[in-house]
Amino acid sequence: MRFFFFFAALPNIALPPPPPQHPGFVYDQLLKYDLQNVKDEERSAKFTEAAEGVRDAVEVHTNVLSKMANDASVSSGIPFLGLDSSAAPAVAITPIPYLFQALGVDHFGATGCVEAAAFLTRIFKSIRGVDLIGFSGLMLTCLEDSGMADAAGKDLYDIKSLLQYSCVCGIGLDCIPVPGDSTADEMAGLMRDCATLSFRYTVSERSPSVFFRHPPPHAPP
């Protein structure tokens, strides 16, 4: 198990048109099922229908990408190993918390987030017709997602919440800010929690990246 603690400067780069596995594509598909207003007695059937429908919609595009990659592999001799089905977040695209709200969660950090994280993970890991490689799951990255950053600024969730959600999404955590004045014991406990989850899910050398964020000058000691 490896842990990386680092600072990074990220340039503001214009993004290309969104790919099929763009969070906005998944969000638009979820809205078709009106999961925010499902009756209790219809919940199980409706969510199953939505999971299969969103998966099928994504597969329309991944099948095209897979064929293109396989054709290129044949002509170039370079092996095509598969696709990563993760809906990768970024600053200038639909925030991941929107997906949670489309599932009926009031806001990111509210009750229901564990169920929503498990539901989205189920979709991302169920893509057929191509070998899934990489993480292929739900990524929760605080500093790369505008919605998560906004929710964190409003104290709607904390790192303990993220660890709870990661129990059902294979510890897909990234770019998590922690106070710069955290004690050694606090950091050691956090590292043990992350390591335990990583080993529990046998993620291949995957570990969360944690950013130190020093308290602002006006913060209380």
Short description, anyone?
With 221 residues, the protein is mainly alpha-helical.
Radius of gyration, taken over Cα atoms and rounded to an integer in Å: 19 Å
Counting helices, strands and paired strands, the structural category is mainly alpha
Number of E-type strands: 5
Could you state the order of secondary-structure elements as H and E?
A: EHHHHEHHEEHE
Mean pLDDT across the residues is: 81
**N-to-C span:** 33 Å
Strand order in the largest sheet: 1-5-4
Oligomer: single chain
* Count of helical stretches: 7
Strand content: 5-15%
Fraction of residues in helix: 40-55%
Tell me the overall shape: globular
* Low-pLDDT regions: 1-21, 212-221
User: Largest beta sheet, briefly?
Assistant: 3 strands, parallel
Describe this structure in words.
By secondary structure, the protein is mostly helical. It has a domain of 137 residues. It is 43% helix and 7% strand. The protein is built from seven helices and five strands. The strands form two sheets. It has a three-stranded parallel β-sheet, with no helix packed on it. Strands 2-3 form a two-stranded parallel ribbon. The chain starts with a strand and ends in an 8-residue tail after the last strand.
Descriptive terms for the model:
globular, mainly alpha, 7% strand, two-stranded parallel ribbon, 221 residues, disordered C terminus, 3-stranded parallel sheet, 7 helices, 5 strands
